[in-house]
Structure to design on (130 residues):
């Protein structure tokens, strides 16, 4: 079981974990709570608090969204894989967007694009079967 951001913060204060682990945990928590509007703030806080470290939240946001099923509906990983082959910059697009105030809108548009692509793909597969 993953540690909460509060638990990690206590360990970070003691020098037992890297400070960016706290911000990554915070990002996972807000994604789980569907509070994507908090991601840019977490990125800003990470950049401010850890001046000497490269910010990790933007670089990890695509994995966080995938692992927490915030991009894919109905666990359609095959549809997502096909969509991602047609949209090879999706991960870097999310990295770029993580610090922007319109991040939730960008994620919602990506979700919708994936959903529509997956539906069309399913319809095509069903059509081929008949």
């Amino acid at each position: 079981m993953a540690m909460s951001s509060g638990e990690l913060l206590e360990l970070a204060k003691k020098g037992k974990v890297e400070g960016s682990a706290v911000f990554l945990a915070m990002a996972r928590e807000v994604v789980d709570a569907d509070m994507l509007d908090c991601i840019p703030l977490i990125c800003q806080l990470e950049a401010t608090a850890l001046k000497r470290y490269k910010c990790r939240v933007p670089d990890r946001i695509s994995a966080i969204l995938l692992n927490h099923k915030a991009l894919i509906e109905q666990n359609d990983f095959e549809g997502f894989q096909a969509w991602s082959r047609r949209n090879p910059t999706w991960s870097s697009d999310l990295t770029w967007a993580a610090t922007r105030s319109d991040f939730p809108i960008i994620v919602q548009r990506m979700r919708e694009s994936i959903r529509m692509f997956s539906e069309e793909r399913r319809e095509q597969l069903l059509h081929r079967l008949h």
Q: What stands out?
A: Residues 103-129 form the longest helix (27 residues). DSSP finds seven helices and no strands in the chain.
